[in-house]
Design goal:
Mean pLDDT: 94
Number of domains: 2
CATH superfamily of the largest domain: Type I PLP-dependent aspartate aminotransferase-like (Major domain)
Distance between the termini: 63 Å
Bound molecules: pyridoxal-5'-phosphate
Helix content: 40-55%
CATH architecture of the largest domain: 3-Layer(aba) Sandwich
Number of helices: 14
Strand content: 5-15%
Radius of gyration: 22 Å
Low-confidence stretches: 396-404
Oligomer: single chain
């Protein structure tokens, strides 16, 4: 039998750090453990009913059964432009400044193919969404990691990037509200991004997947709201998190028309767009009433408060999210990220994601996702409490500040 070698780009994929965790999870499940899985970045809530109903109607129409256009139906792109106008007061030309995507992951995965030559550099936040460096690798580029550190508010420090790297950089990925750190940012950060991008001719790709998952009424801004952003970049967006539509596969990119045209060149040659019935349902999704959206936010806020207060009560250092459905939490000594995840899984059946899985600067943290009901979160806190005591006994570590 011939052996088929994987291509170098596949061989060179970074080790999949979550594989060990997956194996432990399967092992726990096979033992019959009542697992509380806080590792999944996928909403457990259903897609709102009116969107599902719109899909049912749309799927009946034979006109939608044919190949869609790769760039999206005009009505979909107009709906995106309309949503940006209402939500961010940003005016977009739906013909040239909006592009449909088969989920924003598709666009993020493809953009380096359009703009990164072998040897070029992409600036990539770390910890971060693993697709940024992998897409760069697939294009033959090199990722320069920009560490997101707590002391910098989880923003990249551009002064730490060598001039020689900036000169070779063709793309920069940024992502706020941020997965996994939950950090949000401000206009002045985006202004710095634009200044840097102008100076070094870098295309900015802002990933705004979590802009609608926010707390306490503090709505994150769009990169596209900032003067000059459309000169240097684009923003990726998605219906996945906003409307609980991760399985539907629809997203979009907006902004610089030249950059979108480059991404479009890749797409016309690789895919055939989004099923039109899904685009029809998405148009309806953009019109979702505030009461539905604040209902979804309310669910996450109750969960956030339960987990944040619970973990803090155990003496853990937790970043309180203003947005996203993640809690970025420091692991208590003597554990490292993977050790802590393994320990609480073994002793309590609670599963978190080790921070180093998002890049080495994430070492020392774990990510908890708020994708289970409040009662399960409370149960998880109780169990982690016991797991920490267990760790305390085993390790005799006096730095664990546990309440009796
Ligand atoms: C979930 C997520 C996405 C969105 O993925 P889709 O492909 O649109 O479902 C993009 N970026 C980040 C950081 C995410 O966590």
């Amino acid at each position: 039998m011939p052996t088929f070698e994987f291509a170098d780009r596949v061989k060179h994929l970074p080790p999949y750090l979550f594989a060990a965790i997956d194996a432990m999870k399967q092992e726990a499940l096979s033992r019959g453990v009542d697992l509380i899985d806080l590792s999944i970045g996928d909403p457990d809530l259903p897609t709102p009913k009116h969107i599902v109903e719109a899909m049912k109607e749309a799927v009946e129409k034979p006109a939608h059964h044919r190949y869609p256009s790769y760039e999206g139906m005009p009505a979909f792109r107009e709906a995106v432009a309309g949503w940006y106008k209402t939500r961010f007061n940003v005016a977009l030309d739906p013909r040239t400044e909006v592009l449909s995507l088969i989920g924003s992951k598709e666009g993020i995965g493809h953009i380096p193919l359009a703009f990164v030559n072998p040897g070029d550099v992409a600036l990539v936040p770390s910890p971060g969404y693993p697709v940024y460096p992998v897409a760069t690798l697939f294009a033959g580029g090199e990722s320069h990691l920009m560490p997101l550190l707590e002391e910098n508010g989880f923003l990249p420090d551009f002064r730490a990037i060598p001039e020689s790297v900036l000169k070779k950089a063709s793309l920069m990925f940024i992502n706020y509200p941020n997965n996994p750190t939950s950090a949000v940012t401000s206009r002045s950060f985006y202004e710095d991004v634009i200044e840097l991008a102008r100076k070094y001719h870098i295309i900015v790709c802002h990933d705004a997947a979590y802009s609608e998952i926010y707390y306490d009424g503090r709505r994150p801004m769009s990169f596209m709201e900032v003067d000059g952003s459309a000169e240097v970049g684009i923003e990726f967006h998605s219906l996945s998190k906003t409307y609980n539509m991760t399985g539907w596969r629809i997203g979009f990119a907006v902004g610089n028309s030249r950059v979108l045209a480059g991404l479009g060149k890749i797409k016309t040659n690789l895919d055939s767009g989004v099923f039109e019935a899904i685009q029809e349902a998405a148009i309806v999704a953009f019109g979702t009433g505030e009461e539905v959206l604040s209902g979804i936010r309310g669910v996450y806020q109750a969960r956030r408060d339960a987990l944040y207060n619970g973990l803090r009560g155990l003496g853990l250092h937790v970043i309180k999210p203003e947005a996203t459905f993640y809690l970025w939490t420091k692991v208590p000594p003597p554990f490292d990220s993977s050790g802590f995840v393994a320990h609480i899984l073994e002793t309590s059946g609670v599963l978190a994601t080790p921070g180093n899985g998002f890049g080495s600067p994430g070492e020392g943290y774990v990510r908890f996702a708020l994708t289970v009901p409040v009662e399960r979160i409370k149960e998880a806190v109780e169990r982690i409490k016991k797991a920490l005591r267990e760790g305390f006994r085993k390790n005799g570590n006096a730095s664990l500040n546990l309440k009796p």
